[in-house]
Design goal:
Oligomer: single chain
Distance between the termini: 21 Å
Radius of gyration: 17 Å
Helix content: over 70%
Length: 128
């Protein structure tokens, strides 16, 4: 398996694992508004990540190659909808903004973990 495929598979799975773990810890130990922020933020960013992945796979897989304008339009549409949802959640005081920030960091954390894992694998190969 190529390194890119391995990283994508790891990040995709780890997004959901981190979301479930962070949500469970938030529900167990933090105020409900903070926990809801983690849950909603994590869902927004994880779903966006999956939709972007699907859009790019469809756009870059022959024979149905899409224009880069279509990919960008879909990206900006998702970005706009996500912004509206975040605005609604924060203005309506449904979630704690800091909890939302933690939830929105789920994909970043999983990408960081994948990077550390792959770098450590490369260093172990060089050490042997």
């Amino acid at each position: 398996m190529k390194i890119q495929e391995r990283i994508l598979k790891f990040v995709t799975r780890t997004n959901w694992v981190l979301l479930v773990v962070a949500s469970a810890l938030g529900l167990a130990f933090l105020p409900i508004d903070f926990a809801k922020g983690i849950i909603y933020g994590g869902l927004i960013v994880t779903i966006n990540f999956h939709l972007l992945s699907r859009t790019l796979k469809k756009a870059l897989t022959p024979p149905h190659l899409s224009s880069h304008n279509v990919v960008l339009a879909k990206y900006y549409f998702r970005f706009f909808v996500s912004g509206i949802i975040l605005l609604f959640l924060i203005q309506g005081h449904y979630v704690a903004p800091l909890g939302l920030f933690v939830g929105l960091s789920v994909v970043v954390a999983s990408i960081f973990m994948a990077t550390i894992l792959e770098v450590s694998k490369l260093l172990m190969k060089e050490a042997v």
